[in-house]
Amino acid sequence: MLRARGRGARQQEPERVHRARLPLRRSLLGRLLAVSALVAACSVAATAWIAVQTTSGAIKQEQGQNLTADARIYDTLLEYAARNPTWDGVGATVRKLARESGRRVALTTQGRQPLADSATGETARALPPQASAVVDPLSVDTVLATRGADGQGTGADRIDPRAVGPFRLSAADSRALRRTADDKVACLNRAGIASDVVVGASGRPRVQIVGNDPERALGTRCDLAALDAPTRSERKALDALTELADACLKRQGREGVTLNNDLSWGDPAPVAVPGEPGALVPRPVPAPRDAPAEQAAPSVETPELTGENDRAIASCVGTARSEQLSSYVASPALLFIGDEGGATLPGFDLSPANTARIAGAAALVLALTVGASVFAGARLVRPLHALTGAAQRMRDGEQPASVPVSGDDEVGRLAAAFNDMSAHRARLEEQRKAMVSDVAHELRTPLSNIRGWLEAAQDGLADPDPAFVSSLLEEAVLLQHIIDDLQDLAAADAGALRLHPERVEVRELLGQVAAAHQARAENAGVTLAVTAPAPGPALSADPVRLRQAVGNLVSNAVRHTPEGGRVTLRTYVAGRNASGPYAPGPNASEEGRGTAVTGGGTVVIEVTDTGSGIPADALPHVFDRFWRAEKSRSRRTGGSGLGLAIVRKLVEAHGGTVEATSTEGEGSTFALRLPGAGGCPAPDGMTTAF
């Protein structure tokens, strides 16, 4: 048996170790950590997304506004550079742009020598190392430039169309061409064709047909060719441009070209003139709005037209134009645009560095959250581990020990409740062991007596006379009495104690109990008296069980009262439902106890003796099972120690209470408090039979 128990203990040991090492994913700490990390990650992600979206939207809006203002500043200064050969006098324009935009505007040479700055004095902070743009009319920034509707050149041309240089018309030529253009517009209007006069940057007017379909004018007699005739200054400028382009081509070993009015090269395609069958005239190539007009004479020698030649010619024409216009425009300048306080254009860029910063901040927040969760979780789980260990030790039969109470929170209260339970369990275990020992002792005594007498009779040492049989019967009755008491207690504990309540006159019941114990009291030299009003109080109770409870009290009182002493049984009603003017208490006079009681209230039954009394430290234990003030458990000084425990269970079964008061050396009083005749409520688990 011991070996089997040893094997069972060894088999349970791995189970205890396994339970002590709960996997992290299943533990409370792991779940708390996972939930905290998930919440932190979602919070960080949501916060970062909202912040990025909000910040990006605000920055984009501000950048859009700033870019619009910056483009206008750049375009204004670009126009100034295209129309003026130097930057002299640009300060007024810069200050005006700064006032209108609320920004700081500064111009410097490419060597960072200041040309103009809207910030002066203390507000003039150092310029940033990077310029916002380069203002160069011969190399326009296509992002910031605002190309006008009168642009010159091809789409890839980076020369500002307002830089016309020698192609600018004189005031007289411009007025003459304007009168001609007005006449052509009037003619077209008479022909039902809507048109307008548009003046380009060079001062040359041109006729723009509404609908942008110039072929509609071919069917009219409004000759628009007069507007295409170049002036003397334009012809001179075009010839100079052609010479510069030819010189560039000759350096590359290529043949020269003749430029047309629109700065293209090659012969124009012939077109038929309406109204004159078979007649062909060269069809004019549409010229840009500001290009100089000149009659295109057929070139004597046309170079071979290939893609490579065209690219070379285009490059040389662009170089020639820049060379021709360089003396008519201002030199390139650095443009700085920033806030009035000196800051540059705000921006937000999710570059790798910024992304790393955001990721680092999110990781830091997540790490702090996880760390705080681990710290809080460890503090939360540590007392739970202590509780689990203590519970497992109690399960294994070890001596129960209390766990530390960390505080007054939920876990602290749980630990305190566990300590109370552990202490109560320890007390119950001690009571169980004591009860087993007491039951063995109480059963051993009568059984030993019976066995001794029977062995004496068997050995011929005792005669089986009537005295012998009477002694054996007395021991058997005592044994049966102990067994009956244990059975009653077991039934009460299991809630199976059966009651048969009926109306009971307490005065009559006390008289019956006194008569049953009168002989024993006389033999002990004790006076037994009953004091009760006539008629006495009534209650609903099981008369047999109630007589058993009162009888146990009387039996104990007679046993512990010395010769010449007195045991008194009395009853009265305590409560508001007494029919007399007052309900007498336990210290009322005998005359005051004659008040009749018709029902209700609390019926009190007292058993008072003048015996040795009970020590004050023993009073809380008088109703415990097998408790006796005399620890030797001698039959001469006490019973089995179950009588008062049975009294308490019987009174509780009737819905009442029992209490004891005592003065050592003077006597004791045991009081039963039961509900009056209004009813006898059965407590939970008790069975009441009617």
Structural description of this entry:
The protein has 13 helices and 17 strands. The N terminus and C terminus are likely disordered. With 690 residues, it is α+β, with helices and mostly antiparallel strands. 45% of the residues lie in helices and 12% in strands. Helix 2 runs antiparallel to helix 7. The chain is rod-shaped, with a radius of gyration of 62 Å.
Distance between the termini: 51 Å
Helix content: 40-55%
Q: Name the overall outline.
A: rod-shaped
Count of individual helical segments? 13
Largest sheet: 5 strands, mixed
Strand content: 5-15%
Q: How do the strands and helices of this protein lay out in sequence?
A:
Layout lengths: L1 H19 L7 H56 L7 H11 L2 E6 L4 E4 L15 E3 L35 H20 L4 E5 L5 E5 L22 H20 L18 E3 L7 E3 L24 H19 L7 E6 L13 H44 L14 H49 L7 H29 L3 E2 L2 E4 H11 L1 H6 L3 E5 L6 E4 L1 H17 L6 E9 L27 E8 L33 H11 L3 E7 L3 E9 L11 E2 L2
Parallel strand pairs: 9-17, 11-13
Antiparallel strand pairs: 1-2, 1-8, 3-8, 4-5, 6-7, 10-12, 13-14, 14-16, 15-16
Helix pairs in contact: 2-3, 2-7, 5-6, 7-8, 8-9, 9-13, 10-12, 12-13
Key features of this structure:
alpha+beta; 690 residues; disordered N terminus; rod-shaped; 4-stranded antiparallel beta sheet; 17 strands; 5-stranded mixed beta sheet
Brief overview:
The chain is of the alpha+beta class and 690 residues long. Helices cover 45% and strands 12% of the residues. The radius of gyration is 62 Å and the shape is rod-shaped.
